[in-house]
Structures are given as C-alpha cells and as structure tokens.
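Bit of a strange request maybe. I'm writing a small parser for structure token strings and I need a real example to test against, not something I typed by hand. Could someone generate the tokens for this chain?
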Amino acid sequence: MKYPAICEHHLYNKAYRQGKHFFGRYVCVYVLKDLKAKKLQKEHPQKIIVNRLGLSVSKKIGGAVERNRAKRIIRAAYSTVEGKLKVGNLIVISAKPEIGKKKSTDIAKELKYAFSRLDMYSAAENKTV
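Reply from user aminoacidic:
Good idea to test on real output. This should exercise your parser:
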C-alpha cells in the first residue's frame, strides 16, 4: 500500500521535539498525532485515515547508494507492520549508521518492538504482540 510522505520540514522538527520516541540499535522512531489527518481523509481515494511516513537518512550512513539502500530497507520493513498500526499519525524513522548491511527482516523486528513500546498497535492487534 502506498503511504503519503511527510514533505514539510517543520513536521519533521515537530515530531522530533514533541513526539514520542524510541531509540533502537538500527533506527530511531518518532510518532506524533497528525492534526491534518481528517483533511487528508477527504482527499484520499478510499476515504480512509492513514499515517504519514518520513524517512531521515544522513550522510553518516555512507554515499548515495548506501543511503538509498537504507531507505529501501526501512520502507520494506515498514510495509510489513503498517497494516497493524493505529492511524492518523506522523511517523518519522531515522536510520543509524549500524543499519549498514542489515536486512529488512532485522529492521522489521526492531520496528515491531518500537511500535509496541510506543503503543502504536491497534486494539485488535495488541493481543498478538
């Protein structure tokens, strides 16, 4: 499923400053309630509320090839858990230099743990996590 991206720089800063956070081994996850979720619901083709995702990968990770690989891995890992999450949030995932040669399954495990610690799973999914 295609998810809308966070395009405004001030939303990244707001998530960093005001959002709940989790610092893991490979990624840092920031979550903040999206105040624009209802407006975006009206614009969505299926009229559903979704999370907006932002990725932050610095040059500490490496060159362009390594940074793009890190973003692909994070997107793949997020797609495995996104159907179980609460909606209407801004989610910013920042890669750490240790992400290097890890696979998306390793990152998916860390994201599952991070989202469970941030209380992001919907009520039906809380029993299985």
